[in-house]
Amino acid sequence: MFEAARARMVRDQLVSRGIRDARVLAALGKVPRQEFVPKALQAEAYQDGPLPIGHGQTISQPYVVAFMTEALVLRPRDRVLEVGTGSGYQAAVLAGLVAEVFSIELVEPLAHRAEADLRRLGYGNVKVRAGDGYRGWPEAAPFDAILVTCAPDEVPEALVEQLKLGGRMIVPVGSQGAPQELILLRKQPGRLERQAVLPVRFVPMVKGD
Q1: Does residue 72 form part of some domain?
Q2: Is 60 a catalytic residue?
């Protein structure tokens, strides 16, 4: 049942909307999304939209996961920082594409649950910790790519600093209640290239204590 639903998701929600990267399509066609949502919602795991995962957080729409992942042009040797682990689904998708994933989640119960689910499902190249995403993961930096799944008002400077020269970051930016834009950043010598690529709606990025 879930395999067929996953194949339909890839065909009808991703390919039909212009996702072309074969590695990204394969990753989303393989990750068992139903394992990252509450049991009561597993039948809806492959629907075209976000789903609640508790603590006021959501698992993102499959298309948005694919779009953000594809935009980073990931390579097998890359080390990636994810800010906002949530369910762990995006980290699982990244795990099939890169060498190492470091994922931070502010809500401790979500961080622990995602860590347990990722371990149970065999994603051994993902490290999860509870912490403030605004601070990043400095001891593991620099990163080839950074993916942020919650919306700050402005791009956090600490994350820019932890990005390698030539690295890419994708982040939804916008105040709570205001329109948000998905921003693709490229770190170049002495400058930061910035491109708005998609209007989106994400939960706000919250600072830790």
Answers
A1: yes
A2: yes
Of the candidates 60, 87, 103, 175, the residue annotated as catalytic is 60
Give the number of domains in the chain: 1
- pTM score: 0.95
Taking CA atoms, 135 is separated from 129, 146, 175, 184, 203, in Å, by 12, 13, 19, 19, 18
Quick: pLDDT tens for 6-42: 999 999 999 999 999 999 999 999 999 999 999 999 9
Backbone angles phi, psi at 63, to 5 degrees: -60, -40
DSSP string computed for 47-111? SSS-EEEETTEEEPPHHHHHHHHHHT---TT-EEEEE--TTSHHHHHHHTTSSEEEEEESSHHHH
Residue 135 domain-assigned?
A: yes
